[in-house]
Amino acid sequence: MFHRAIDMHPHYQVAFHNVGIVHRKLGEADDAIKAFKDALELGSNSRIAALLGDEYLGKAESQVVHGAVLSQPAQELLAESLRYLENATTQCHLPYAEFQMARLRLVRDGPNESVVSAFKDVLASNDRLTVGHLDDRMPDDQVYGEIGIVLNKLGEHVRSAEAFELAVAYKGPEHVNAGIYTNAAVLGWLPLHDLHGEHAKYTHPDGRTESALDRANFFLNEAKRASPDNPLIDINIGWLLETKGLYSEALDLYKRTLLRVPGQPVLQQNILRVTEMLSNEE
Q1: How high is the mean pLDDT of the chain?
Q2: How far apart are CA 192 and CA 213, in angstroms?
Q3: Given CB 3.0 to 4.6 Å as the disulfide criterion, which of 41, 85, 185, 186 pairs with 53?
């Protein structure tokens, strides 16, 4: 339908934008990039520039190897992403573009407090939006989620857990996606338990306290509710069971999950490890 609109009106920027959005949703990055570039040839548009920058950033991220120096192709893709994102952010304070710029800095420079500040600036831009531009808002839960991830990488585990709590509180527990719940458990509260044991606690608004391990357990159960068929969530629940010393339950969960995703290497490794631990206990 959108391609027909382009054929009928080859200078209709919205049609090219819509084609790009369709390709983007289908995961067809190269086709999305071409459509967004065609749209920008018809006129400047900060939103389309931000989308184009995001597509180049995604392609760069796919080539990044953890702990390795950025390859030349990854650097070139980041440079293209930066060019379009700078164009988008200089035209107006578009929170979506600022969010992608912060992500780019994280990929290019690694985790640091400057990146944390860049994500916080996105929240400030959200607050400055006027009523007529609320559609340009970058959801706060996604921003806090990214802040939590960066702080985890920096070893700032208390601040990381706090950021994930803010991500969950923003929309309310019933509307949070499984990824944020999982990160809140695995990157937020489990590291605090590993560091401080039972001394690490979450304090509810009414004054009740909950151990870090119980808080992680709550978030993983919520992740399971939000995405019941996701095997990665089951792997993390298994790890939580191991942390609690419930090795037989963890092994049973790993085996049941492996039946759904045969050959999954992490599951196979976990099954071998836990089986060996249980045999050593006998």
Answers
A1: 90
A2: 9
A3: 85
